[in-house]
Amino acid sequence: MFLDFRKPLKTCSQSSCEDCPLTDSLHCHFKGIDLAKFLAAVFPAFVIGSIGIYRSGIWFFIPWFALILLYFGLIEIRVMCSHCPHYAEAGSTLKCWANYGMPKLWRYRPGPMSGMEKGIFLAGLVLIFGYPMGLFLAFSNWLIAGLYGISVVGAYIYMRRTMCSHCMNFACPLNLVDNDRREAFFKRNPSTAVAWGYKQES
């Protein structure tokens, strides 16, 4: 289901994951519990959002679902996921905690995201999570709006503290991994280091 924990990433120059200094501080591999935590964090927002949209009018589901499928199934994979070292792994689908099972239609593109890619990535998130809130405010569904807002903010805070701070996709504009851990990762993943223009000290 997920990558073998005993096997280094395809981009890693090491022959084993034993004694890796990043084992407990960076998520190079994922477990089912990581996927479960991610779903538990975002599920309330989508459930509350769906209830609120249904109460506003069932036809409002169409543009929201279309946007969700287009963004998470294609756009986000292209502009953000394709920069992640995890994307270089074998297989036709992603096996990470955030987009598990999504097709890898694009080539692996190591290195930073462009300014346009960052803009598209962030704009997509704003549209997906902002669309329900706009409807709730327009129809004066204050209780739903409040609950939805709390669920979205809660998911954001949880993700930032527990996942974005340990994610190896440094290209993502939400990534919070510090420079020391990035450098340690680059030293063990030379091809990624080259793509980022990182030069090791001689």
Keywords:
202 residues, mainly alpha, 52% helix, elongated
Describe the structure.
This protein is mainly alpha-helical. It has one domain. Helices cover 52% and strands 0% of the residues. The chain contains six helices and no strands. Helix 1 packs across helix 3, helix 2 packs antiparallel against helix 3 and helix 3 (115-138) runs antiparallel to helix 4. The mean pLDDT is 93.
Topology:
Layout lengths: L31 H25 L4 H19 L35 H24 L3 H21 L16 H10 L1 H6 L7
Helix pairs in contact: 1-3, 1-4, 2-3, 3-4
Poorly predicted sequence stretches spanning 5 or more consecutive residues: none
Number of helices: 6
Shape, per Cα inertia axes? elongated
Specify the structural class: mainly alpha
Instruction: Provide the succession of SSEs.
Output: HHHHHH
Largest sheet: none
How large, in whole angstroms, is the Cα Rg?
A: 19 Å
Mean pLDDT: 93
Question: How many strands appear in the DSSP assignment?
Answer: 0
Termini separation: 40 Å
Q: How many separate domains?
A: 1
Share of β-strand residues = under 5%
Helix content: 40-55%
